[in-house]
Amino acid sequence: MTTKPTKSTKENIKEAATKLFAKKGYSGMTIREIANEVGIKPPSIYAFFEGKDDIFLAVYKDALNGHLSIVESQLKNTQSKKVQLYSILKSAIDFQYKEDLKAKIIVRLMTSPPEIIKEDIIKRFGSMELNEYKILSEIFRQGIENGEIKESDSHALALSFQCIMDGLFWQMHRHSEEEIYARLDITFNQFWNGIEK
What we know:
The chain is 73% helix and 0% strand. The protein has 197 residues and is an all-alpha fold. Helix 3 runs antiparallel to helix 4 (81-98).
């Protein structure tokens, strides 16, 4: 009989912080509350993180990496570019619903980042967005090269696609899950009809 590996204390700290950050925001929670949630003494947290800022950035980094890994996974996909691009959008939405707390943190950080770590947050988000853009640009370039996508500027297509991703992400906070998936299909089909060869 195999048993599930238990989460490390570091992962438990991040998970507890994610819940508290999503619920109370950056300034509304403390190291003590994180420790209580995990079931350890507050000083124990400093064996894993330098402080609240460090935990906060680690949680944010995990959320961004989870999003980026969705896009990266499609680059190795051997299916058509249409399937790859649709999968990126659908998987990103699936991820946001599954990791609801992380999605809330991303929203909080994009709309009102704490001043003390604002610069770091902007830098990390910019880096993730650039990596995402490079992958999307390559997918579009390959699609143009293999004749699936009409001759166009892969740079412009990648930027347009990122705008669609952002639009769907923000709509998720205003509409039902059923409505979002319906809008995904409508939006993607309109986009694809405009670029397919």
